[in-house]
Structure formats: C-alpha cells, structure tokens
Give the backbone structure.
Amino acid sequence: MARDNNEAGLTENCPQCPTPALRSQCPHTPEGREYLKQQRLLRQSTPNPSNTSLPPWFSYWSPSKRLSNPLYNYPGYSPALAYGMPGSQQIDPTQFHNLPVPSQLIPFPGNPGNSGATTDVTFSAGASTVLLTALPATVSSNPANGSDHSDDEETPSSSRSKRGHRVRITRKNALHGKVDGAMRGSKTSIDILRMKELRPAIADQSKASARFLRQTSDIIECCERVSQETGCWLHFSAQHLFAQGGFLHYTSPRLLKEAKKDAEQIINHANRVYTTLIAARNEESKVMHKRLLLAEEDKQAAQEAERSAVLQAQAVQREWDLQDEELSAQRLELEALKARLKLAERRNGTSQ
C-alpha cells in the first residue's frame, strides 16, 4: 500500500479494518504500525496493575486500560481526579507509601476550555503527596478587554529572544529600541517602543516596491479602522522613491467633514513635496548618469593613453636592444681587427 502523507487522510477510518479504526492507528499504514509499536513498548515498560497491590483507581493510569476504558476519553481531568464521575474516588495520599509506581509523568487530556493545556501527575515512591499541575500551552489576552495605557505608563509586551524564551518589553527594557521620528506636536518627540527588530533594507527594487504597496495597504486599513472606532482626525500619506504613479494617502471622514479645505491643502502640499522629490531624484539621476558617462570616457581615454605609452616604451626598449646588439657586434669586430694587427706586427718583426 502506498504511503499516504496526507494528514487529513490519516484521520479517516481504515476501510480494511474489521472494526472502526483511524488509519493513523491501524496496522495497514506505516504511521499506524509505528503507533502500535510505541503502544507495545509502553505496555511492556509499565507494570501490570493486576499484579500489584495498587488502589482500584490506579488502573485508569495503565496504558492497557487507557485505550479500552471509555472514561479515559472524558474531555476533562483524569477520572481518578474528577469528583462526581462513575468509579472516581478521592485520593488518599497515605496509599502512595511503598508502592511500585512509575516515576515518569503521565499525561492526561486537557481541559476542554483550553485545547492546548495538559495535566501532568507526578508519582514518587515513598511520597505522601500527588502533584497535579495544569500547564497551558499558550497564554493569550484579548486587547479589546484590556485597559488603555497612558503615555506615562509602561506599555508591557513580550518578544522572543534568540534563545526562544519570552522577554518582556517595557520602557525600562527596550529590547529593540524606540521608533525614530515619532513626534507629538511639532517639537516634542514621543517614545514608542519597537515590538520587533528592524529588518535590513531590501536591495531588490521590485521586491521593495511590492512590500511598500502591501504594507502601505495594511497601514491604510488600520487607519480606517482607528478613525472609524475612535472618530479621530487622521491623515496618512506615503510614496516610494521608484514609484511610477501618484502617492498613496488616507484622510479620516471627520477631518474631511470638519476641515475639508485644510485637508485638501494637506493633500496638495504632500503631492507637491513628493513630486518635487521624485523630480529632483530623477534630475540627480540624470546628472549622475552624465557624470558617469564622462567618467567612463575619461577612464577609456586614460586606458588608451596607458596602452599607447606601454607600446611606445616597448618599441623604445626594442630599439635599445638592437643598438646593444650592434654595439656588441662592432666590439667583437674591433677585437678581431686588433688581434690580426698584432699578428701582422709579430710577423714583420720576425722577418727583419
């Protein structure tokens, strides 16, 4: 049978099993065989309650009883720890003296109100207490139910550090610093904590433009939500330096209603500012392009002059080498003439 990696398929009943069983727990799939193998190992490593003098409620913790006992599937605490359930008893701590019970943690189903919670029961031989601990997987809060914080109060938040544990971010512990450029009024700056670390600038302009459009759309949506819920005066505008179209902006309905002319002036002024910046950048780009072309031409001329100088130097060096060879040949010829002259003088002296 082909391996099925679809998680949704493993949650269905196996058609080959005579009794209803999940495919992830039947012997017809690799996942089911691995599950049954782990169950067998668990049963072998756990003592049988029938062979020990354990209390009757301890049978609920036996792996062999967990699968067959319907009370174990109760979506709450263990039957041995829940009062008012059939077969449940109040735990007597004195019954845990000198019992051969396992020392590991035995997980039980969590609270139905918290799907991520787990309840662990710890046993220790010779101990007279039972430790019952409910550990929620996550702790979340509803911002709608929280109280508003003033600017002078600490605004706590949490962030995960590099090691994985949560770090509480406050004004005294500004892990990621503060937002630069946040102002209250025209002269007073305001401290707004960064909840996340700043990412590096995106080098690819196409990716940067796409992220700008995506994030700006989210900001405009948040602006609309804030203006709708609080009825504030709000204006936001943004433009990308490589944008081909007009700038993006949002003005709250209250600002348009109560100060329409001023809002139009703000929008027109922002349009002029962004247009001037883009034009100046384009003009600067043109000037820089011209300078770059001139620099390239100068560089090519310098390289050509350098090549010419090198060729000229090589020609002069070859001429010098030829002159050296000619001088060497003349020197040898002169030495030969001197030798012949000496030989002739010797012959004349001998004949006389």
